[in-house]
Amino acid sequence: MTLLSVEGLTIDLPGTQPGLVEDVTFEVNEGRCTALIGESGCGKSLTSLAVLGLLPPSVRVSAGAVVFDGVDLLTCSPRQLRKIRGGPVGMVFQEPMSSLNPSMTVGDQIAEARRLHLGEGRKVALARAKDLLDRVGIPNAARRLAAYPHEMSGGMQQRVMIAAAIACDPRLIIADEPTTALDVTIQAEILSLLRDLQRDLGLAVLLVTHDLGVVADFCDDVVVMYAGHIAERTGVDDLFYRPAHPYSAALLAAVPQAGQSRSRLTVIPGRVPTAGAFPPGCRFGPRCAHFTAPECARPQPHGRTRCGRVASGDLVLEGALHG
Amino acid sequence: MGIRMIIRRLGGGLLVLWLVSILTFLLVHLIPGDPAEAVAGENATAADVERIRAELGLDRPVLEQYVTWFTGVLRGDLGRSLFTDKTVVDSIAGSAPPTLVITLMAIVVAVLVGVSAGIVAGLTRGSRVDRAVSALATLGIAMPSFWLAMVLVSVFSLTNPWLPATGYAELSEGFGTWLSHIVLPSTALGLATAAELARHTRGCVADVLTRPYIRTARARGASGGWLVRRHILRNAAIPVVTVLGLQAGRLLGGAIVIEAVFGISGLGTLAVNAVLQRNYPIIQGYVLLCAVVVVLLNLIVDLAYGWINPKVRTA
Ligand SMILES: Nc1ncnc2c1ncn2[C@@H]1O[C@H](COP(=O)(O)OP(=O)(O)OP(=O)(O)O)[C@@H](O)[C@H]1O
Ligand SMILES: [Mg+2]
C-alpha cells in the first residue's frame, strides 16, 4: 500500500537553476523503508524537505505533487499541512545539535507535538515525553526531561529528535541523514533504534543516507538521485545484483571492500555539478564511463532508469553481488 | 545561574565601583583651578585661601584625603557642597527623581517601540514594513536627541497645545500631570535607543529564523504565534538584552541634554553647575551615583541573560 507518493516533483532555484530537482517520482509504502541515496549535493535534502513544505525561501517547487494518504501536500491548505507535520509524518534531521532549540528543555520539545496536535496540557504531554525518552533508550528519563540539548551528547540529542518525531504515533518518518553527524559507534546504535521503532510501530521510513551498508540492512526500496534527477528507482536486491544506471554501478564500485581502507563515495572521478551548471542530456554524462555521444547528450527516458542505453538494452551493468 | 555566579558578578561590580571611586577622587585633583580659591572668592587674601584649604583638608597628603573621603563614602557620607550647607547626599537626592524617572521611562519607550518594531521587521524581512522600520531606525540613530526633542516640542506643545513644553511635575500633583510632563522628554531620550534596539532585534529575529531548530519546530507543526513565542523570541532576546544593558548606561548620560532642552532641574543641571563652580564634592557624588546605576544595570542584565540563556545558567 502506497503511503507517500512523490510525483514529478520539480524544484527551481530561481535565476540560477531551473530543475534543481527535476521530475522526481517515487513511492514510500506503508511500513516499509525507502532509501534516498546519492552523493552530496544531489538534492536529497531538498526532496525530503519539499514533502512537508519546509524548503528554504530561496527555492521554489514549480511542478509536481506530493500525495500523502490521499492528500496532495503541495496544494492542501496550510492548516491541513500543519496537521500532518509532526502528526502522521515525523521528521528527523542531520545535525541534532543545531536542529534542537537550545533554549527549550528536551522534555518540552518532545511534548510540543502532542500539545499542538492532541491538545494535551503541558503536564500530560511531559508525562508522555518521559515514556518516549524511555522508548528511545535514554536512561534516567524523568530527570532528563528538564535537560537542555547542550547538556547531552550528539547521540542522546539524536535520540531526543527521534522521540519528538514519534511523539504523535506517526505513520511515516522522514530521516535526513540521521547519523551522518555522529560517531561511527553511535551511528549503529541510532540506526538500530530506528529499525526497532520501524518494526514495532509499523512505521514507513524515508531514509536519506550516504551509506550503502545501511541501505542493504535496513531498506526495501531504493531511489538513487544524481544532480536533481532520479537515476534509478529499484528494489534493494536489484540495486546490488542488477543496477540499472551507470551512476548506481559507480556508487557500488566505490564502496570499500573488506580489507580496503574506508574511503566513502569519492572514488567516482569528478564531482556533482553545482546548481546552474547542470549539463544538458544525461546529468551524469560527463563523469560516466559509458558515455556515448549523441545518445547521452539527449534528454533521457523517465522510468525505472534514467539511462537511455540501459533502458534500450544497449548497456548491461555489473552488480556488486552476483547470483 | 548559580549563587556562585551571582556572587562573582557582585564582586566584580564592587571592584569596578572601588576603581571608579579612586578615579573620581583623582579626577577632581586634575581639574584645572584650585577649589580653595573658588570657595574663597575673588577678593580673598592668600591667608584666607590657605585657611580654607586647611578647612577642606586639601593641604594633607592625597592618600590621606582619599582614605578620609572613602571611609565617609562607605558610611553614606559624601561630604558637603562647598557653597551651600546641604550635604551632597541631600543635593543629589533632591535632583535625582526627575532624571531617574525620565531615564527609566526612556528605557520603557525604547523597549516597547524598538523591540516590537524589530520583531515585526525581522519576522517580515524584505516586506514594506521591514523597509520602513529599517529606514526609520537609521534616521533615529542619526538624529541627535536635542534636535528630536525640539521637533517633538514644536509639534506636540507649540503647534498643538497637547503637552507641556517644559518643566517637571511631582507625582503628588496628579498622575496625569506627572505623565504629561515626562512623555516628551522620555520619548526624545528613548527614541535613539529604540532605533538601535529595533535594528538589533530585527537582525536577531531574522537570524533565528534561518536556524535549523526553527525548521524542526515547523516540522513538528508549530506555526504563527506559538512558533514566535516559544522558539523565536527567547533565542532572539539573548543578544538584545546585552545591547539594552549597554544602552541603559548611555541614556543616563543623555538625560543631561534632555533636561537642558526641557528646562528640568535634575541631576544634569546639578552636575553641570557643580563643574562650573568646581564644587568637587557634588561632582564626585554624581560620578559615583552614575557608576552605581550602570553597575547595577549591568548586574540586572547579567541576571536576565542567565535566566534567558540556559547555557549560561549551567556554566
Ligand atoms: N537554500 C538553498 N539555496 C540555494 N541552493 C540550494 C539551497 N539548498 C540547497 N541548494 C542546492 O541544491 C542542491 C541540492 O542540495 P541538497 O541539500 O538537497 O543536497 P543533498 O543531496 O542533501 O546533499 P548532502 O548529502 O550534502 O546533504 C545543491 O546543489 C545545493 O547547492
Ligand atoms: Mg542533505
Can you describe what's shown?
The complex is a heterodimer of chains A (323) and B (315). Chain A has twelve helices and ten strands. By secondary structure, chain A is of the alpha/beta class. Chain A has two domains: 2-225, Rossmann fold (3-Layer(aba) Sandwich), CATH 3.40.50.300; 227-311, no CATH class. In chain A, strands 6-7-8-3-9-10 form a six-stranded mixed sheet, sandwiched between helices. In chain A, helix 4 crosses helix 5, helix 4 packs parallel to helix 7 (154-165) and helix 7 runs parallel beside helix 8. The relative contact order of chain A is 0.14. The model of chain A has no long low-confidence stretch (mean pLDDT 90). Chain B is 79% helix and 0% strand. Chain B has helices at residues 3-30, 35-40, 46-56, 62-74, 88-123, 128-142, 145-159, 175-209, 212-219, 224-262, 267-277, 280-308, 310-313. Chain B has a domain at 92-295: MetI-like (MetI-like fold), CATH 1.10.3720. Chain B is globular and about 85 Å long. Chain B is an all-alpha fold. At the A-B interface, helix 2 and helix 4 of A face helix 9 and helix 10 of B. Magnesium ion binds at residues 44-45, 176-177 of chain A.
Strand content of chain B: under 5%
- The gross shape of chain B turns out to be globular
Number of helices of chain B: 13
CATH topology of the domain at 92-295 in chain B: MetI-like fold
Taken in chain order, the helices and strands of chain A follow as EEEHEEHEHHHHHEHEHEEHHH
The CATH superfamily of the largest domain in chain A is known as P-loop containing nucleotide triphosphate hydrolases
Number of helical segments with 4 or more residues of chain A: 12
Task: Write down the domain tally of chain A.
Answer: 2
Which series of helices and strands of chain B comes N to C?
HHHHHHHHHHHHH
Q: How much helical structure, as a percent, in the residues of chain A?
A: 25-40%
Widest β-sheet, arrangement of strands of chain A: 6-7-8-3-9-10
Report the average pLDDT across residues of chain B.
87
